[in-house]
Every structure is written in C-alpha cells, then in structure tokens.
Amino acid sequence: MASHIVGYPRMGPKRELKFALESFWDGKSSAEDLKKVAADLRASIWKQMADAGIKYIPSNTFSYYDQVLDATATLGAVPPRYGWTGGEIGFDTYFSMARGNATVPAMEMTKWFDTNYHFIVPELGPEVKFTYASHKAVEEYKEAKALGVETVPVLIGPVSYLLLSKPAKGVEKTFSLLSLLPKVLAVYKEVIADLKAAGATWIQFDEPTLVLDLDAHKLQAFTDAYAELAPVLSGLNVLIETYFADIPAETYKTLTSLNGVTAYGFDLVRGTQTIDLIKGGFPSGKYLFAGVVDGRNIWANDLAGSLSTLHALEGIVGKGDKLVVSTSCSLLHTAVDLVNETKLDDEIKSWLAFAAQKVVEVNALAHALAGHKNEAFFFANTAAQASRKSSPRVTNEAVQKAAAALKGSDHRRATNVSARLDAQQKKLNLPILPTTTIGSFPQTPELRRVRREFKAGKISEEEYVTSIKEEIRKVVELQEELDIDVLVHGEPERNDMVEYFGEQLSGFAFTVNGWVQSYGSRCVKPPIIYGDVSRPKPMTVFWSSAAQSMTKRPMKGMLTGPVTILNWSFVRNDQPRSETTYQIALAIKDEVEDLEKAGINVIQIDEAALREGLPLRKSEQAHYLDWAVHAFRITNVGVQDTTQIHTHMCYSNFNDIIHSIIDMDADVITIENSRSDEKLLSVFREGVKYGAGIGPGVYDIHSPRIPPTEEIADRINKMLAVLEKNILWVNPDCGLKTRKYTEVKPALTNMVAAAKLIRNELAK
Fold this sequence. Notes:
- The protein is of the alpha/beta class.
- The protein contains 27 helices and 22 strands.
- A hairpin with a 6-residue loop joins strand 3 and strand 4.
C-alpha cells in the first residue's frame, strides 16, 4: 500500500504563515515567533499525512518564501549586493534577496513553469563561490523524525536549479550556466552526506525541467550530474520527480538510464502520453511513482478511472510496493482543506477535493490497488462524478451557441493601431511620456474592514457605497496632486481582481478559505469555474463612472481579461479551456461596451497571466496563443477608434511571445520590466518593431524600496534608446495594492518627476 505526496501547501488552512511573515516584516513579532508558527504548521502537515497512512511523506517542501530561493541559500549563491559575508544564511539576507531592502533591489521573480506560483531567479556567474550555507533540509528531516515521522527530504535537482537560473548582471548572456555544475554538485554532496548521517533512507530530487524541450547538451548534464552523485547516494533510495507535462521520448530514455536512481515520478494527469512511454518499456526493479491525483486543480478524482490506470501500470511494473500512488505535482497549487468551506452548497462541495482530501484519495487508491478497496468511498465518488455530469447548473445553451458563433471571425478592430492612436490623442490630449499606474492602490486595514463588514451584513449597502466612494475620492485627489496623467480609481471595492469578476459572473463558485500561495506571503483565492459563463449585469460601470465624475483627467476603466480569469481560476475540466475562455471573453466584451457608453475613454483589460498559460512544450504553444490572443481581441472589437484599450502583463518571460503580444492589437500595453533587469528591452534592441503604446515598468512594486528619481530617469532613457518617444508610457511594474501609502507616495512622486525631467530634456 505505497502512497506518496510530492509536496504540500505551506500557508496553513487559514493563512497562518502569511500573517506571521507580515507581522515579522513589519517588526511586530520576532524571528522566534515566526519560526514557532512555521514549526507548528510543519508538525501539523506531517501528522496529517502520517495519520492518513501516507508512506512517503515529504520534508523540506516548507518554505518562508519559495523553494528555489531555499536552494540558493543552501548553495550560498548570494549576489554580492546583499553584503553576506558567510556563515549560515539568516532571515535578513534571505528576505533581502526575496524582497529587496532600503538600499538594494530584490532579485528577479518569475512564474514557476505554467502556474501562478512565482520563484526568485538565481543570479549566477563564473565568480560565484558555492558553499553549504543553509542546513534547512537536514534540520527539517530531523525535526520530523523527532516527532516520530519518517520523511523523504526533497531538494530542487541540481540540473533544474541551473537551468532555472540566469547570468548575473555583468556576466555575458552567453555564459553557460551548466558549466557551474561541478561546483554545485560539491555542495549537493555535502547535503546528501548530512541527510544520510541523520538517517534518511529516501531522497527526492525535483527535476521539473525534464518536461521541457531539452537539447542533447542539457540531457547530458542530467547523466553527468547523477553519475557524479552516485557514490554519495549509494545506500539511499533516490526518486527523481517530474511534473506539469509529458516527458519527451528522448528525455524518458535519459531519465530511466540515470546512474544510482531508484524511482521515477511522473505527472499522469497533464502527462497522459507518458503512460505510452512507460508501456513501451520501464526499467526492471525500479519504482514508479504514478501521479494520478491532480495537484493543480480542485476536482475530486475519478477514482474508478485512476484505479484502472494503476492496474494497467501494475501489469508493467509488477505487483507489490514498486508501484506507488502519488499526486501529479506538489499540492502547493491547490487549496488546503474543504472542511473549512462553510458556504459552498453540498452539490458543488461533493464535486471537489482540496489538498487534505487529495491525501485521502491517494491513500484510498493505494489501498484499492493492494486489494483493500473502500467500497463506500468509491461509491460516493462515482455518485459525485455522475452528479456533476448531469447537473443542469453546469450547462447554458445560449452561452454555448454564442461561443460557437465566434469561430467564423478573427475579431480585429477595423482601423490600424497607428490611426487609432492619432484619434485617441486628439481626444485625450496627453503629454509625451504620459504617466499612469496599473490599477490598484494600497489596500488599507480600514478598507478591508469596510468590505468585510459589508459582506457580513454589519453595514448597509448605502454605508458601503459611501465609504468606497470616499476612498476613490482620496485616490483621485492623490493622483491629481502627484500630477499623474491617466488616472485609476484604485480598485477599493476589490479584494482580488479575478475573484471580484467571478463573483458577478454566472458559472462561478467561491470559497471562504480556498487560499493558494502566489509568492512570499501573497495568497490568492481562485474562483471555481464549474459551468458555462455569462454576465447577468454590468460589473464595474458604477464605480468607474463615479471615479470619472471626480476628475477632468482620463480615468481608466479596469477589467481583468478572459485568459487571466481562466488561468487564475480553478477551471472546469469537462471541456477545452479555450471554450471556457471564449465564454468569458463575451462577458467582458459586454462590459467593455457598457463602459464606453458610460463615457469611459480609456479601458484597461489586464492579461497578466497570458504568458503563464503557455504550454511547456513548443509543439503545443502556437495553438494556445492563437485562441488566447483571439479571446482578448473579442473583448474590444466593438469599440470606437477614440476609445483607448490598454492591457497589462507581469512577471513572466515575454520575449518569446512578443509577436503574439503585438497580435493582441491593444492600443497600449504596460508590462513588467524593472525587476527582470530590463530583459524586455532586448527584444526591441534586436529589431522587433512595436507601433502601439508601451509602458515597460520603471520600478518594482513588490519591494518596499523607493527608487530615486535619477534611477527611474535612467530607466526611461534606456527605453528611449529602443522605443519611439511618442509611444512610450511611464508606469510602475504592477498594481500597488500590496504596498503602503508611505511607500507609494514618494515612489510615484519620483516617477512623475523623472518623466518631467526627460520631457524637458527632449524639448531641448
């Protein structure tokens, strides 16, 4: 009855770690207080899995920020700017790398493969002196052992660590990161020796880059790495875990030939074709960790279907403990526990499984595979699957017909972007280098209290509207005082941009505690798309109109785009994702046209997550980009030339999809740039022509650091070296909701001052 969990959510069922982190960062609690909360959470997680009967329980999957940053700390790969002088890496250095500090910026943050989770990108070069500087892996293993729980320590694999890194500033972009492999392996050997000495019998290396399209040189690095580690790994059972996609055939051959490896973990939910490779040949005597329980979504497992798959695999691997039932990936990407959901109705609740329930599913499948099937549990699961398929609340024929009718057109605006920008400029009369922000302003405790009390029925709708309008007025007055050109209303009515829209669309359900970590202490509560989507009534027109009435300057209407709503939700898995996206696009189209009728001349449709959803395998990317970009164009195809359509994207590598971004045909795009060392600008240096308005972010909003005017002006000048002055906008990297007003005011003051400084220089 072998069962395994790849990893588990860290934040706690009610975001206990989030609040402990923020209290520590604000100086309200000590490092010891934070460590105590973390230790209690770890103990609870290990006990839960042990009590559920899980055999292979992971340790070292807990993190104060993210697991790649933990690996950077373990390797002592701290960039020199943080002033680390050696020894065990503490919170000061660790959190400075993650968040920056008063004097130096944070390291780059980007998306973890095709998820909404983020990681801190290692900055490496030939001069990095790797040293064993964080003993977290062995400490957590010992901690679990002291509680009576035997665990499998988890490490980011050495090759994936290097492939996920980037050359540090000043290092040639052509520098081979894999050339650092011998130095990195020297530290890994020390970590492994420590774990062996502590009594570990298994070790799990997460090597998720194995699902990517890797050339022969990169595949050879895996062979070399594990051959080098084989002597120190001797005596340990070694699991190589992969996830998020199919394994390419050539990679499968390399993986299953690695020296000293005992077991292989595969995602068999998103990697169904991998089953064919396993059927074609699996190494004798090795363990297969079969990821049949979805770690990325919240739908209850089809236990009968999964058991059928496991029986087929058993015919290849053999009966006994060599076939291990597992999750498809870490449960980090799903909500924690369905028990905490008190407002979901019973029907929808019966269709779902959060992390805690998935642990139970894994164990139930392992028992069934061993001949000890819980008939009642399987029967209830079959009934829930049937209920979901037949429920009338899932299907709306009118919506399906409207979406089907979209197939005959590519939905492009009739006038080209250059002519539209001319028409818009005549109407808006903006200066060169217009300034704006991305949408949200700080979410103060008072604002959160107002929203909370309104939802709880403690204040009336009239009191709520009055409070929100007052907050909008403050934000508008602040922007006018700062002399920002195109204003936003600050989104005080929204806790989360996707949740806000989902609450007003049909086909969505919502949780009370369905939080998922996005990065650091930032958690999101993805809505659940269970049925066909439509817009019963306008969603933002009231607030945008109220905000526009408070100023003569242009006020942006703020919407979330269909692809981002899709990618930041738990999406139904009973129809293609493209079909759901087209339904959402039609709903947003209705909202865009209502905003235009209400006199809103600038409308931003955020597609922050468009790049995030890009399939990991190149052969599947063109199809995704085709329907994703088409869905965006659907939303605004019906507006007048004088209505300016903005979009926003953040924290991904956009260079490889720049032509699809151009094909979106937005009038203006604002895009993350500063935290990634202005990587985006290299596209334009290489000759890509961009004719629409563009605002590469001039400062990083995920750090409390306030950038000086000169630094921002320098960034603007770098942009002007590759972009025409008449299309360039000046704006932060992203929305300001996570910052404080004491940070936002001086940062925006400096941003506007920098724009004016460059305008004056251009005028001369």
